[in-house]
Amino acid sequence: MLLKPINYFITTAPQIATAKVTSENFGNLHQITAFVEGNASYLFRIDAAGFQTDFVFNNVTPGTHTITITDTNYCFEKIIRVVILDYPKYFTPNGDGINDTWLIKNRQEFTAATIHIFDRYGKPLFQIKQQNKTGWDGLHNNNQLPAADYWFKIVYTENTNGIQQEKMGHFTLKR
C-alpha cells in the first residue's frame, strides 16, 4: 500500500490585532493602518472591499469603518471598527443659510461628546454638548467674534469600543 504524505499548516489567531487612524487628526487624506503580531501571513480588508496583503488603507472617508484581518488560509477572522472624525475647515455665519454654524460632521459615531472651542490664546469661548444639533454660530456673550482661526478639543466615547478619546484641531471663522 502506497501512503501519500499529508501537508498541514498550523495557524493561530494573532496575539495582537489592532487598527487605528494613522493620518493627521482630521486631515484631508485619511489613512488607517492595521497592526498584527502573530506567526502567520495575514490579509486585510476595509469594509466590503476585497482582501489585500497591504495593511495600510489610504484615502479613507470619514465615518465608521470595519477592518477585517484573517490569515491566508482564512482560518480565523478579527474584526475591528475604526472611527474617522471630520469637521468643516471653515464656516461663514452671515445668515445666508450656508455654513452658518460650525459642528463636527459625524457626531452620531460616538457618545458623550463635548466640544470645547477656544480662541488662539486658549480662552474658552463655547462648549457644544452631544445633544446640540445646531453647533456654534460665532458668537461669544452675544457678540460677533472676528474672522480668525479658532481651536477646538473634542472629548468623546467611541460607540464601537467604548474607549474615550480626545482630539484637537482648528478651523476658520470667515466674515
What does this 3D model show about the protein?
0% of the residues lie in helices and 47% in strands. With 175 residues, the chain is mainly β. The chain folds into 2 domains: 16-84, Immunoglobulin-like (Sandwich), CATH 2.60.40.10; 90-173, Immunoglobulin-like (Sandwich). A hairpin with a 5-residue loop joins strand 5 and strand 6. The chain is elongated, with a radius of gyration of 22 Å. The model has no long low-confidence stretch (mean pLDDT 88).
**Proportion of residues in β-strands:** over 45%
| Count of alpha and pi helical runs | 0
- Shape descriptor reads elongated
User: Largest beta sheet: what is the strand line-up?
Assistant: 7-13-12-8-9
Radius of gyration: 22 Å
CATH topology group of the largest domain: Immunoglobulin-like
Helix content: under 10%
Please render the helix and strand layout as text.
Blueprint: E1 16-21, E2 30-37, E3 42-46, E4 56-60, E5 63-71, E6 77-84, E7 90-91, E8 110-118, E9 124-129, E10 139-140, E11 143-144, E12 148-158, E13 164-173
Parallel strand pairs: 7-13
Antiparallel strand pairs: 1-2, 2-4, 3-5, 5-6, 8-9, 8-12, 10-11, 12-13
Concise overview:
By secondary structure, the chain is mainly β. The protein contains no helices and 13 strands. The protein starts with 15 loop residues before the first strand and ends with a strand.
Notable characteristics:
175 residues, single chain, 0% helix, Immunoglobulin-like, mainly beta, 5-stranded mixed sheet, 3-stranded antiparallel sheet
